[in-house]
Design brief:
Elements lengths: L25 E2 L4 E2 L8 E2 L31 E8 L2 E5 L6 E6 L1 E7 L4 E9 L2 E7 L3 E11 L6 E3 L5 E6 L1 E5 L15 E5 L3 E5 L2 E6 L3 E5 L2 E4 L3 E7 L4 E3 L2 E4 L3 E6 L4 E3 L3 E4 L3 E6 L4 E3 L17 E3 L3 E6 L5 E3 L3 E3 L3 E6 L4 E3 L3 E3 L3 E6 L5 E3 L3 E3 L3 E6 L9 E2 L5 E3 L3 E6 L14 E5 L5 E7 L4 E7 L5 E5 L8 E6 L2 E8 L2 E8 L2 E8 L4 E3 L19
Parallel strand pairs: 4-8, 7-9, 8-10, 9-11, 10-12, 10-13, 11-14, 12-15, 13-16, 14-17, 15-18, 16-19, 17-20, 18-21, 19-22, 20-23, 21-24, 22-25, 23-26, 24-27, 25-28, 26-29, 27-30, 28-31, 29-32, 30-33, 31-34, 32-35, 33-36, 34-37, 35-38, 36-39, 37-40, 41-49
Antiparallel strand pairs: 1-2, 3-47, 4-5, 6-7, 40-44, 41-44, 42-43, 42-45, 45-48, 46-47
Length: 530
């Protein structure tokens, strides 16, 4: 006989015993009795707290010299393409020498304060500029396709202020045959010097040879919409650093979305939509451990804001060979390899982040992980390798604020001597059902719609209070709720079925199930709970 015992208000729509991993049976000689305990109505709250941020917390890369409004341009050269013909208006012909070969335009400038306004269309042309001084390059409804090289080739080591107006389209050749042996060119839009993009227009680039945009110095995007619709290699590639202050980047590429070869990446704001074969965003060079490089050239990645959608089919979502710091922003990553990866410390201080990996760890640091704020959901779905939601090996895993929710085969164990916010680690449940944790008096601590079946779940939030006893419920429903990536921050939870697992928080980290990473070890005090 099966007898249903109503400990709290029964909600018979929650009789989904078959979908829960947890069943409760007591057998006598003549009958089998199953006692089911339901959750009463529980109010869902947002219990995020924020502690003192750590890592690279104040670095925006601000430089007043990167603002075009701080520069003066006394002379304007106008270039208008018309298929194989080009019209030039040049008020300083002795200082700015323009030569034409069909629709191939080559400029040699020896003076400062020159602005170039370029418009029109050609299916077999290019723009090449040599300059001893920084200059402004305004692109206005320009379309250039080059049959034997880059569309725009800047052979100058000075700053180029690129102003985008209207809709501009650039396509290079799949093979470069018109580049002198002593010159370098490896992108549809190539520059030896700094590239600073602004304006309200759009730039669409097809990179048939290698990269979409390259600077052998640095690239900064202040505003505008830049779309690399295809690239054999990287979407935007720089030597020294890449800074994004705003605008929109749409990058669909054969290697990395953003790649800095010997420097750092800072994202302050903007919308970044990246579909990459390799890494989405990468500061990709390895540091020689015997060297002591200046901080300005460390391969760090700092995220201060912005909205990110990153998909990779072979690589990592965001990779820093140095330090990775996330101060704010909304990050959604679906990666083949690690979702977030750092060679040095990894800091999460704020923002809302969903990080998913199909092959490796969701969040992986080769050094420490520190979480002080924000909401981070980390999911690693592979079950045949030792991959986890959070992985920092034997190093420090410090949690002092924010919300972390990790699903994977395993997880690193938070460091109890370093952490100040309580964490619980427990067995996973079946996918596509609600998971709820609440205290004995019915105070909600977690409500989450579980998207995948995994071995181990790790959860930390300020709602987990020391000395309290908590029960885990599965199933049920939420009314009038608000959820981000499945995590509810408001609404009313009801009707869930209680599991046999309960725990009392007597240590900073409470483990009642789940698996630890292959080399991770519990901190001092060890796991607790019952």
């Amino acid at each position: 006989m099966i007898r249903l015992k109503k400990i709290r208000k029964p909600v018979f729509t929650a009789l989904l015993i078959s979908v829960s991993l947890f069943t409760f049976n007591a057998c006598s000689d003549d009958e089998s009795e199953t006692i089911v305990t339901y959750s009463d109505d529980v109010i869902i709250t947002d219990g995020n707290i924020t502690s003192t941020a750590e890592g690279d917390t104040y670095n925006t890369g601000y430089d007043e010299d990167d603002l075009v409004e701080n520069a003066t341009f006394a002379n304007t050269v106008q270039i208008v393409y018309s298929d194989t013909d080009v019209t030039i208006t040049n008020p300083v012909p002795y200082d700015v020498v323009v030569t034409l070969d069909g629709a191939d335009v080559t400029i040699n400038s020896t003076i400062s304060e020159v602005a170039y306004e370029v418009s029109g269309s050609t299916t077999d042309g290019m723009l090449k500029i040599y300059s001893d001084k920084k200059f402004k390059l305004s692109l206005s409804d320009l379309s250039i396709t080059n049959a034997d090289g880059p569309a725009i080739n800047i052979q100058s080591s000075k700053t180029v202020f690129v102003i985008l107006e209207g809709t501009n389209n650039l396509t290079d050749a799949s093979d470069y045959s018109n580049i002198p042996d002593d010159e370098d060119a490896k992108a549809t839009f190539f520059s030896e010097g700094q590239l600073v993009f602004s304006g309200s227009g759009a730039l669409n680039i097809a990179g048939l040879y290698k990269h979409g945009i390259v600077s052998d110095d640095y690239v900064r995007v202040i505003s505008g919409t830049i779309s690399v619709t295809e690239a054999v290699s990287d979407g935007i590639h720089a030597n020294d650093y890449i800074i994004v202050d705003g605008g929109t980047l749409n990058l669909s590429v054969g290697s990395d979305g953003l790649d800095c070869e010997e420097g750092y990446v800072i994202i302050n704001d903007g919308s970044l939509n990246i579909n990459a074969i390799d890494d989405g965003i990468a500061a990709s060079y390895d540091i020689d451990e015997e060297e002591d490089p200046d901080d300005s050239v460390l391969p760090n990645v700092t995220i201060n804001g912005g909205d990110f959608v990153i998909i990779t089919t072979e690589g990592e979502g965001i990779e820093a060979k140095g330090i990775l710091t996330i101060n704010d922003g909304n990050i959604n990553i679906s990666a083949y390899d690690d979702g977030l990866n750092s060679g040095g410390n990894l800091y999460i201080n704020g923002g809302n982040h969903y990080v998913y990996s199909t092959l490796n760890d969701a969040i992986d640091s080769n050094s420490n992980i520190t979480v002080t704020g924000g909401t981070t959901i980390a999911i690693a779905i592979r079950t045949d390798e030792p991959d986890g939601s959070f992985d920092c090996d034997d190093d420090i895993f410090k949690i002092t604020g924010g919300t972390i929710l990790g699903l994977g085969l395993n997880t690193s164990f938070p460091s109890e001597t370093e952490s100040t916010q309580n964490t619980v680690i427990f067995d996973g449940i079946n996918a596509n059902q609600l998971l709820n944790i609440q205290s004995e008096d019915g105070t909600e601590a977690l409500t989450f719609e579980v998207p995948y079946s995994v071995n181990t779940i790790i959860y930390s939030n300020g709602k987990l209070e020391s000395g309290q006893t908590y029960h885990i419920y599965t199933g049920g429903s939420v009314s009038n709720g608000t959820a981000i990536n499945g995590l509810y921050t408001s609404g009313t939870y009801t009707g869930g079925i209680a599991s046999s697992n309960s725990f009392t928080i007597t240590n900073t980290v409470t483990q009642i199930g789940g698996e630890m990473g292959p080399t991770g070890e519990p901190g001092e005090g060890g796991p607790g709970g019952h």
